[in-house]
Amino acid sequence: MTQVVQAVKAVSRLLNSSEEERFDIIPYVRAACSEIESRLKDKKDENDQRILNACVYLSYYRILLNCVLSGECISSFKAGDITVSQSPSLALENAVRLRDDALIMAAPLLEDTDFMFKQV
User: Fold this and answer.
1) Can you give the residue range of the structural domain that contains 93?
2) Beta strands per DSSP E along the chain
C-alpha cells in the first residue's frame, strides 16, 4: 500500500494535478503496482526504488495513453496574448521512453514474462 501512496504522489507531480485529480490517478497506479508486484522475483524487493519508479512511469504512460486515445488531453491554453501548446503525441512518446527505462532498471528484480520457451 505504501508503494501505491508514493506512486500516486509521484504521478501527481508529473501530471501537475490537483488534490481532486489524484482520485482519478489512483486506479491507474493500483493496476500498475499490482502488475509490477506480481512479477517480482522476491517479495523483499517490493520497496526498492526501481520498483517504485516502474510503477510510477507505467501509470504515467497509461494515463497519457488514455488521454490521447480519448481525445481529452489539453494540448494548449491561452492567457492573454500568450498561447502555450504541447503535442499530446510527443508527451506520450516521452512517457514511453520513461516507462521503458524504468522497466529496464527494474528488470533484475522482475521475472521475464515476455519470453516463453516451450519446446526444442
Assistant:
1) 2-109
2) 76-79, 82-85
Residue 58 CB burial class (10 angstroms; 0-12, 13-18, ≥19): buried
> What DSSP letter does each residue of 11-41 carry, written as one string?
HHHHHT--TTTHHHHHHHHHHHHHHHHHTBS
**DSSP 8-state class, residue 77:** E
Give me the phi and psi of 79, to 5 degrees please: -130, 100
For the stretch 67-108, pLDDT in tens is 888 877 665 556 677 766 667 788 899 999 999 999 999 999
For residue 113, give the C-alpha cell: 514474462
Domain count, the chain: 1
User: Taking the model in full, what pTM does it have?
Assistant: 0.82
- Taking phi over 0 as left and psi of -120 to 50 as alpha, with beta for the rest, 2 belongs to alpha
Residue 116 lies in a domain: no
